[in-house]
Write a structure and sequence with these properties.
Layout (H helix, E strand, L loop, with lengths): L7 H23 L8 H29 L15 H6 L19 H22 L5 H29 L3 H18 L7 H8 L10 H14 L25 H16 L6
Amino acid sequence: MRNETPLDTDVSAYAVRLGDDALVLAQRLAECSSRAPALEEDIALSNIALDLLGQARALLTYAGEIEGARGPGGVPRQGSRSEDDLAYLRSEREFTNCQLVEQPNGDFAVTMARQLFFSAYQLALYRRLVASADATLAGVAAKGVKEVAYHVDHAGGWVVRLGDGTDESHRRVAAAVEQLWPFTHELFEADELTGRLAGAGVGVDSSELAIAWKEHVGGVLSEATLKCPPFGETAGWRPAGGRRGVHTEHLGFLLAEMQHLHRSHPGAKW
């Protein structure tokens, strides 16, 4: 039996946020199945998607367990949801993933640039989160660090190959970086939730991850002979709002496909 604590609501919201990032990107990568440029890459992207799906399941399950925690006197809290409820029965505005992960795959260069940008952020986050005072979040992060380290290397290797390859591959990956870069700024926006959790030793202040992220990503882009766009206050358009449920038009289409079967056959057993 889990006893309710004042931080429960914040921890649940944080677990959902991290889980949504992983779930949405897993769905995007699953769309690449049988569509990658080579068989080995098809398998690699599918495995990365499965890694992210596993992280999402652990985080969303934990969020549901917190919702169902029993308070004083053993009275169940109302509104408990399972991992399936959280994945398949929430609307677009209830998802709190960053807007970067919902961006369409586009060509292979877009897929790899998006993966590099997000995985480098996620690795920096998990490396800090392993010290969380929350044992479950720390455990998810400890397992995730090993998986995401491979994601970063894999995506970075492809960005270098494309950037330092042919004129056509260079053009495409340069366009992908330019297209996706504005969405990276949202990854490092601190808010009241992360502020409270960081102060309690549970979560991570996202703004503190920006330096390590930019150093790593900038190094990869330099090796790929690509220009690193302006970051921070010197940057131009910086879309945001995903953490508040404000998304691009792409998420609605993704959720319609992902949730269709579950909503069409509620309660079905397989």
